[in-house]
Amino acid sequence: MAAHDCPRTPIRNHDPACERAWIAERGGTRLGSIFCVRLDAETAKLRLFLTVPEARGTGLGRRLLRECMGYAQATGYRQMRLWTHESHKAACALYRSEGWEPLEASDVVSFGVPLVEQAWKIELESSCNRASGKLNRPCVPP
Fold first, then answer.
1. Position 13 pLDDT exceeds 70
2. 135: closest CA among 63, 35, 29?
3. Greater confidence, 130 or 38?
4. Deepest in the core among 54, 65, 72, 137, taking most CB within 10 A?
5. 109 phi/psi in degrees, rounded to 5
6. Is the pLDDT of residue 50 over 80?
7. Share of the chain above pLDDT 70, in %
8. Cα(100)–Cα(116) distance, rounded to whole angstroms?
9. What CA–CA distance (Å, rounded) separates 70 from 16?
């Protein structure tokens, strides 16, 4: 089944042909996670991307992000999207360094705290042709 044929399902019934999750651990201790879920026929959504404080700055976040992007591309998605807060400076810098672009931002108040929500996206087809080789997987024709 191609990614574009996969129906949207709850995580407990996810289809590994179009959705995947990674949980990084060392010695039985969880260090981070990232999820690739179907947003629509051509778009994967990056979700639940986090690393514990002691794993930050080790390259784990970049490795998880590249693995997720490579999977989305190999599965046939043409683009990815994500949602974050502007206050997550290190994550935003990582996204930008891997070719992601901010789409929109909006001021919100969450639990009484003023924040700026951001939506980001990356075109996977064009990213595979970059000379920088940011993706660690080969391109798969759509």
1. no
2. 63
3. 38
4. 72
5. -120, 120
6. yes
7. 79
8. 18
9. 15
**The pTM is what?**
0.78
Domain 3-125: give its CATH superfamily: Gcn5-related N-acetyltransferase (GNAT) (3.40.630.30)
User: Across the chain, which distance is largest between two alpha carbons, in Å?
Assistant: 46
Would you state the structure tokens that stand for residue 69, as one six-digit string? 């992007």
User: Which residues are CB-neighbours of 22 under 8 A, at least 6 positions away?
Assistant: 33, 34, 35, 64, 67, 68
Helices then strands, counting H and E runs in the chain, come out as: 3, 6
How far apart CA 26 and CA 41 sit, in angstroms, is 35
Q: Beta strand 79-85 with 101-110: parallel, antiparallel or unpaired?
A: unpaired
Quote the tokens at residue 134.
């940011």
Cα separation values, 35 from 22, 27, 29, 96, 116, Å: 6, 21, 18, 19, 22
